[in-house]
């Protein structure tokens, strides 16, 4: 299933990151800073999406908590991250997903 159907403005066929959050989530604010650093390191485009506005994505991809990070490669989700331990950990997950 292509994630593009949920986010029609996403770049076609590219590799990018989707960061899912909710406005009242304090942990999401910290994770967003980590994602900003990750974007600088990887030079990947980041789409920041309030998951309250995409309930179908939340249901179909079984998002049980926020923040959430999707690594998208060729319009398919290559990795999903719910546990934001560190920028280094995120960097390793993204690199692994992109090289497989």
TrEMBL record:
InterPro entries: Thioredoxin-like_sf, Thioredoxin_domain
Domain of life: Bacteria
Domain (Thioredoxin): residue spans on this chain: 17-88
Position of the signal peptide: none
CDD domains: TRX_family (cd02947)
Protein's recorded name: Thioredoxin family protein
């Amino acid at each position: 299933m292509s994630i593009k159907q949920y986010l029609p403005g996403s770049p076609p066929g590219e590799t990018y990151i989707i960061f899912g959050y909710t406005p009242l989530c304090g942990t999401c604010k910290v994770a967003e800073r980590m994602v900003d650093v990750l974007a600088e390191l990887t030079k990947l485009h980041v789409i920041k999406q309030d998951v309250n506005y995409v309930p179908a994505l939340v249901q179909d991809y079984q998002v049980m908590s926020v923040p959430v990070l999707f690594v998208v490669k060729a319009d398919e989700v290559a990795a999903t991250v719910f546990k934001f331990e560190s920028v280094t950990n995120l960097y390793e997950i993204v690199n692994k997903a992109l090289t497989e």
